[in-house]
Structure formats: structure tokens, C-alpha cells
Amino acid sequence: MSGARTAGSAIAPGATPAGAAGHHGQGGGEGDAIAAVLRQVRRVEIVARRAIDDLLAGQYHSTFRGQGMEFDEVREYQPGDEIRTIDWNVTARSGTPFVKRYREERELTVQFLVDESGSTAFGSGGETRRSAQAKCAALLMFTALVNQDKVALATFADGPRGYWPPRKGRGAVLRLVRELFAPPPPPAPTRIAAALDWLNRVQRRRCVAFLLTDFLDPELATPAFSRTLAVTARRHDLIAVTLIDPREVELPDAGLVEFACLESGARRQVDSGNARVREWWRRRHAAREATLDELLRRCGVDRLRVALPAADAAVRPGRDALLDAFSTELKALFRRRGRRR
Predict the structure, then answer these.
(1) pTM for the full predicted model
(2) What burial letters (b/e) apply to 241-253, b meaning 16+ CB within 10 Å?
(3) pLDDT at site 43
(4) What's the CATH code of the domain at 47?
(5) Core vs surface per residue 169-193: b (16+ CB within 10 A) or e
(6) Domains of the chain: total
(7) pLDDT at 3
(8) Of 161, 152, 167, nearest to 120 (Cα)?
(9) Would you say residue 12 lies in a domain?
(10) CA of 238: how far to CAs of 74, 173, 189, 203, in Å?
(11) 8 A C-beta contact, residue 173 and residue 100
């Protein structure tokens, strides 16, 4: 459910579990909207650069590897070389045994799958989940830029929406970041499996794929969804990024609250003044998180879970509370992967 309204309470509009409407003012036209997007992109680039310098670039490079081994050269066979590396064509032409030499392919393709469904408009703090997803994806894109990797973007809701194929360079990354911060499309339900099926068809070679979604998908508990998720994790290095709003974890005591789902339009009243209701809310969230953790673990998907900062969170000058929290979680992921190697 999402989009809360209250009768005589202090709860902010939009404080709900499945996505409350964001606080979008009416701008002064298309030109003002574009200028606002460009200012946001520039700010995120500056803040992201600090996070990359402080925490990420070296660990990123060692954590995510290229697509495998690529051919380097042939040389004459030497005692101790693997017989299976003999290049029989060159050996036949020259009359002397030659072997193939390979080197690790360091260039990555980093694919971003970003959820644009109606529930991503939820935001009880200073920004919506959609905006927070855009900032986290932008940080990762600028990190990929530092490491000279190709970056691609695909957006989805009830199916694939937009696609920008893999490109290298600052211009390509800035184009994708602008798309992330563009005005949101009309709301639609969530179908993650459709986006994963699309990725498996389009991206034939192995890539690092970041899936940014709230997993508020009615198909989540089905065997078909598990199969699609597992297949994608085998073909690609799949990492789920989930951003948890404080109102999803804890329901404040705000009296009688009406919730509206941004995807279905369904409405329901909840008595948040009832302690048993608030306890049920906490238990429901904890159970959902445990179920999602188990699903991702079983399918071989790493998870980056980040708590969205409250609107009044303290921020150091020149920093961003969300990107600092995200960088910390990303660094922890790098350590976990390092221990597994």
C-alpha cells in the first residue's frame, strides 16, 4: 500500500509501505525541468567523485572481473605446457608445436536495470525511492567510468521501457544519468521477471548487472520468478540493490491513516494508534525481508540493502547522506566477495 493521508495526525503525505507519491512541484515549463535535471546530475557527479576517491575505485576494479579470458598470442610449445592449449592449425602449418596464450579480459560491461513502477514514487523523507535509486545508480556509473568500463541502462515497470546500449566514456555516462533523473513516466505495476527475461535475450555475453528495485512484485513468490532469477544469476553477475524507507520498517503513531496503493489504486484505512497494529507492521516487514534474503541467497544473487536517510539526517558539508550509506554497504559487499574468492 502507498500514499498515506491522515485525519488530524502528524504523518507526512506519502508515508506508506509500497510507494507514496513524491512531492513534485509544478515547474516553470520544460526548460526549467531540464535545467533542474542538469543541476542534479552535476551535483551527483561531484558528490559521487568524492565517494569513489574515498572508498570504491580500487576495490571495484578487483571485485568485478571481465567476461573471462581472451586470446593473446601463440608461441612455441615448451615442456610443461598443457597439451590442450596446442593450436593444431598453426602447428600443422609450421611443423612445430605451438600453443595458444590467453590473458584475462579486464573490460566489463555494467548493465543497470532500474525499476520505474508506481511504487518507486514512495518517499517519506527528503526524496522518493526513484530519486534515491537514480543517485545510487549514478554513483556506480561514475565508478565504472573511472575504470573505463562500458555502461548500459534499461528501465522497466510492467515490462521493459527504455534501453541505452553499452557505451564508454564520460559523455555516455552523463547521458544515462540524465535519463535516470528525467521526469517519471506514468505509473505502472511491477514485473521484474519480464525485465530479467529481456536482459537474458539482449545481453548475450556475461556482464555485471545491478537490479535496482523494491521487489514489490506480485509474482515474487512464484516458482517461475525463482527460475528466472536463478537463470539470470548464472548467466550474469547479478546484484540486487534495495532501498528501505524508514516508514516501511516502523509505522508511527499517527491515528487513523488512509493508505492508497500507487500501482493498483486500492485504498485501506489503518489505525496506526493501535500498538498491536504497529507491532504487526514491524513483524510483516521483518518477515518480508527474511523471505527476500532467502530467495536471493538461493538463486545466487548478492544484495545491497541500504536504509534511506531520514529527512533531518545530519550530512557533512559537500557530502550526501544516501551516497555515504550506499558507499559503506558497497564496501561491505566488496569485503564479502573478497573472502569468498
Answers:
(1) 0.78
(2) bbbebbbbeebbe
(3) 72
(4) 3.40.50.410
(5) eeebbbebbbbbbeeeeebbbbbbb
(6) 1
(7) 43
(8) 161
(9) no
(10) 34, 20, 22, 13
(11) no
